[in-house]
């Protein structure tokens, strides 16, 4: 769960901050740990890399379903 602590922020600001963080983490995983993610894709979840790419490249607010689906690959 991402709980940004931002002074004087409203819900939209929190959502934007959390979304930016999730996108950053997805991009970071793809850049720094692609070998491990490919192993994970072969061993556990064949769609995990595609989901990371989709989350990293989406330019709109993501739905809670997409967040949860993406989160499940790390569980």
TrEMBL record:
Superkingdom of origin: Eukaryota
Key words, A-Z: Aminoacyl-tRNA synthetase, Ligase, Protein biosynthesis
Gene Ontology MF term list: asparagine-tRNA ligase activity; ATP binding
Spans traversing the lipid bilayer: none
GO cellular component: mitochondrion
GO BP, one annotated term: asparaginyl-tRNA aminoacylation
PANTHER family on file: ASPARAGINE--TRNA LIGASE, CYTOPLASMIC 1-RELATED (PTHR22594:SF54), ASPARTYL/LYSYL-TRNA SYNTHETASE (PTHR22594)
Name of the featured protein: Aminoacyl-tRNA synthetase class II (D/K/N) domain-containing protein
The species this protein was found in: Gossypium mustelinum
